[in-house]
Structures are given as structure tokens and as C-alpha cells.
Amino acid sequence: MIKVLLVDDQSLIRQGLKALLELEPDLEIVGEAENGEVALNLIIQSLPDVVLMDIRMPIMDGVAATREICKNFPGVKVLVLTTFDDDEYVKAALQHGAMGYLLKDTPSEELAVAIRAVQKGYTQLGPGIVKKLLIQFPTPIPSQTPSMPPSLAELTPREKEVLQLIAIGANNREIAQQLYISEGTVKNHVTNILNRLNLRDRTQAAIIANTYISYLNESI
């Protein structure tokens, strides 16, 4: 059973999410909080596996709460859920350790899938999120073509294939099925990719892959 904590300043939103997610047999709503400060106190009591975190809330917003949760409760995964189309909030939440970012109008079935994936350690990015995050990295002048970083060019053809699949949000099982290899082999490739590119997680890998996607296609 995956224990979920709902954090949103609107009680109607919390009630709706609770009603929908409780239909899933493997999800249990263990608490509700109207702001980040209350959420931190509830985490100590309920020890959730995943926190569904709103961004804009009074007293302590979702970005600050995500930072504190990831720092003090490393075993708790944060999935940001918001209606706001705000680049800075997206970046800040992920930089502080959120495992993903989805819009509140995401269908409940997809949200449930995302919760399960995040609980297992996979990154979940909503539509268009990767494009927003590209601004974290140096962007070439439009009239110029970006050169492939040496570390990216050093990846093996198989690692480049894995990186391309990471870029579109595929998890380890999906990558294994696509490339006809074991999940253990995929994990090894992902570890090698992160180490060679000096990246923290799959989110950063996805951003890099989308930045240099044409080079990856040409070099495989």
C-alpha cells in the first residue's frame, strides 16, 4: 500500500483528489494539509511514501515545503501538482528535490500511475515541462548550432538510446522492453549516463537529451 499525503490550500481540491485516489486499491490517503507547515508536522505522524504538493499556498508554499521535506525526510517523495503555469516555480520545486510535476487537470488514472512511479524513484514530468526547464542550461544563439558536449559524445550507442528514452519519460521497465534488455542492465546504463555527464538525476538527463536530441539521433 502506498501512503499519500495531500497538500493544497483549497479543501475542495483535497476532497476531490482524495475521493478519486481512494478508488485505487493500492493507494491510501494518510492525511491532508492546507499548507507546507502543516504538511511537515503531518509527515512526522503519518510517514507518507508520496506527498502531492500544491505550489502556491499561504504560510509556507510548496517550494519551501519541498525543500524541507527532501532535506529532512529523504525517504518521502514529492510530486508537485498545480494549475499554475510558472517557469520559476517549476524549476525551484525540481531543484529542491521534487520527483515530478503534473497539472491538476491530469486524469486520475494518470495521476495514480505517476504516484506509483514516483514512489519507486522514477521522475514524472507533465506535458511541456522539459521545454520549460531547458532555460536552466546555456542556450545557443539561434543562428548557431550547439556543439555536442564531449562527455555526451563519449556515451556508447546503447547509452545514447537509453538517454533518448529517458528524455520522453520512459521508466526502466519500459526502456528494457523497448531495447530488449533486462531492467538491471538499464539501471547500469542509467548510472553510467549520470556519472559520465555529471548529472544528479533523470530529470537533468532528460533536459540534456532534449537539448542535444538531433546529435543523439545522428550518432546512434
H/E element sequence:
EHEHEHEHEHEHHHHHHH
Shape call: globular
Query: How much β-strand is present in the residues?
Result: 5-15%
With helices defined by DSSP (H or I, 4 residues minimum), what is the helix count? 12
Structural class, please?
alpha/beta
Strand order, biggest sheet?
2-1-3-4-5-6
Our Rg estimate from Cα atoms comes to 18 Å
Helix percentage range: 40-55%
Major beta sheet summary: 6 strands, parallel
Low-confidence stretches are 135-146
Question: How many E strands?
Answer: 6
| Average of pLDDT | 83
Question: Could you give the distance between the termini?
Answer: 41 Å
Structure description:
There is one protein chain. The chain has about 220 residues and is of the alpha/beta class. Helix content is about 50%, strand content about 15%. The chain has a six-stranded parallel sheet, sandwiched between helices. Helix 2 (about 35-45) runs parallel beside helix 3 (about 60-70), helix 8 packs across helix 11 and helix 9 packs across helix 10. About 35% of the residues are buried.
Question: Can you lay out the helices and strands and say which pair or pack?
Answer:
Layout: E1 2-7, H1 11-21, E2 27-33, H2 36-46, E3 50-53, H3 62-72, E4 77-82, H4 87-95, E5 100-103, H5 108-119, E6 124-125, H6 129-133, H7 150-153, H8 157-167, H9 172-179, H10 183-197, H11 202-211, H12 213-219
Parallel strand pairs: 1-2, 1-3, 3-4, 4-5, 5-6
Helix pairs in contact: 2-3, 8-10, 8-11, 8-12, 9-10
Distinctive features:
about 50% helix; 6 strands; about 220 residues
